[in-house]
Amino acid sequence: MKLIINYLLCTCMCLILVYAKTDTYRAAVVAFTPNLSAPEPLDRLYTNVASYLSFIDEAGAQHSDIVVFPEDGLTGWYDVITFPEIVELVSTQVPDPNLKITPCSSSNKKYSKALTDFSCSALKNKIYVVVNLVEQYYDNERKNYVYFNTDVVFDKNGCVAARYRKINLLNENLFVPGKATLYFETDFGVTFGLYTCFDIVFKHPALNVLSDLEVTDIVYPVAWFSHLPFLQGLSVHHGYAVSNKINLLAAGLHDPALRNGGTAIYLANGEILKVYINGQKGSKLLIGDVPKISRRKSDKSCQVLEQLSEPTKEELIDIASFATSVEDMTNYTFKSIDLNKKEISETICSGEKFCCKFDIKLEASSKANYAYKLVAYHGTVQLSQNDRLGTRSCAVVACKSEDNASCGQRHKEPPSGVTFEKIEVKGTFNSQNSHDQPSTLRYNLKPVTNYTFCRNLKNNNDVEINLTTTEKQSLLLTFGIYGRVFKDDGKPVGLTEE
Ligand SMILES: *[C@@H]1O[C@H](CO)[C@@H](O)[C@H](O)[C@H]1NC(C)=O
Ligand SMILES: *[C@@H]1O[C@H](CO)[C@@H](O)[C@H](O)[C@H]1NC(C)=O
Ligand SMILES: *[C@@H]1O[C@H](CO)[C@@H](O)[C@H](O)[C@H]1NC(C)=O
Ligand SMILES: *[C@@H]1O[C@H](CO)[C@@H](O)[C@H](O)[C@H]1NC(C)=O
Ligand SMILES: *[C@@H]1O[C@H](CO)[C@@H](O)[C@H](O)[C@H]1NC(C)=O
């Protein structure tokens, strides 16, 4: 009898061990500052390739299943948006994944040494490798070479398993856009969607790739430009992971003076497993064990965030010198928060129909160094010469002074003198062809991780949204709902009707 019990105990233990072992996979993401000091473009490229190879070795030595590198990490972004001859020089052909080619063991001269090196390194380290690079492709219709901003996935045998061409280019006139969404399966049982940087704010591909509920995780190379109050990288990426209940592996180009930064592993439950941002140049490998999800939850019920494990504790290194730009919010509706009041209940509207309701409890001293304002906007914003985005937002934002134009600007010093005991932001919006997500940011340029975000589909046309803090907040820059209204993309800048 005792023997049987021992046997059962052991079997159970083993089962638990086996279960625990396959319950997560190990992900690595690299925050990367390219070294652009060599005078020759190819020397710059191969200096950065060498750094990538040592990060792959390090991630492999720590038994990672997958390692993800940022967008434009091999070249920096400036060269590839500016010089056609450099684009050509640093480019490589990338095999069609259907051909199951392993560049490491191919003698085809169309594949650059960089592509071959990554393939060999994936094989040697038995790790999936995701790199963003310049792809050269012979276009039979144009009878010419074209260039794509491409993510290449190598599997654990160094074989090219996926090739994604960025669809939504941002000021990248030397590239042609890709067309297709893409996902790939792995030998550790996780199916990943894949897209690049700016793509995340577009329905195609960022929402379309989720139409299959088996896509539970996303790999995401990015070179984000921080733009306040709503478009800071970590804030947008976290909001996407929360609102879609998806694991997101975001590897960010890190160049604080140029506004580029924000690397993290976000979990489907809203937790941030690992995160890196600061005001100094330098690269960093983040590794974490990501829970596997068999199927994504598609329901629009409340998402309750409770940060269980604290994110990495790196100091606020020079966070004030991390550059951020500011949106021109001329057409927004503003309402100042009176810091002498302890409770505020206010509804403000942008245009006739789009209204946001705020309920706030706060404690303030007379020495508050930021003003806070309620803002509402339903309209189009000009993000680049070619990109006008339909947006809608309701938020509390920090402003450098009482001037509306100072909202989104930061002091060198952290906010002091104001503690929000509670903030609740609510609205009922048209649900058609749109997507809403939390948009939150603290002084350390990381998102808030203690709140509840609810979306309730009321009928075919309306979605009721509320976002409520569950912890007091004293270092707040932004707290609100940021929505995209896809049908308004491309319309003239200014207010649009709900
Ligand atoms: C950048 O690369 C050059 C070689 O191209 C090297 O001499 C230099 O030390 C590198 N700088 C840094 C900061 O790693
Ligand atoms: C800020 O904008 C609001 C309208 O949205 C306006 O009523 C208010 O006067 C402006 N405040 C300042 C200081 O410009
Ligand atoms: C969030 O809540 C958890 C537990 O509820 C707490 O341990 C943590 O300190 C909170 N984090 C912040 C940033 O308030
Ligand atoms: C937030 O929305 C959820 C779902 O629609 C609802 O159950 C909850 O009562 C709302 N909370 C507030 C404070 O309105
Ligand atoms: C504000 O709206 C007007 C049209 O009403 C438009 O001409 C202007 O460009 C807009 N400004 C911004 C910054 O959105």
Automatic annotation (TrEMBL):
Has keyword Hydrolase?
A: yes
The UniProt keyword set, sorted, is:
Hydrolase, Signal
Q: Which GO terms describe its molecular function?
A: hydrolase activity
- Record Pfam families: CN_hydrolase, Vanin_C
Note the InterPro entries from the entry: Biotinidase/VNN, C-N_Hydrolase, C-N_Hydrolase_sf, Vanin_C
**Quick check: keyword Membrane in the entry?**
no
Task: Describe the location of the CN hydrolase domain by residue ranges.
Answer: 32-292
Annotated signal peptide: 1-20
Query: Do you know which PROSITE patterns this protein is assigned to?
Result: CN_HYDROLASE
PANTHER family found in the cross-reference section? BIOTINIDASE, BIOTINIDASE-RELATED
Q: Which family does it belong to?
A: Belongs to the carbon-nitrogen hydrolase superfamily. BTD/VNN family.
- What is the protein name stated in its UniProt record? CN hydrolase domain-containing protein
This protein's species is Aquatica leii
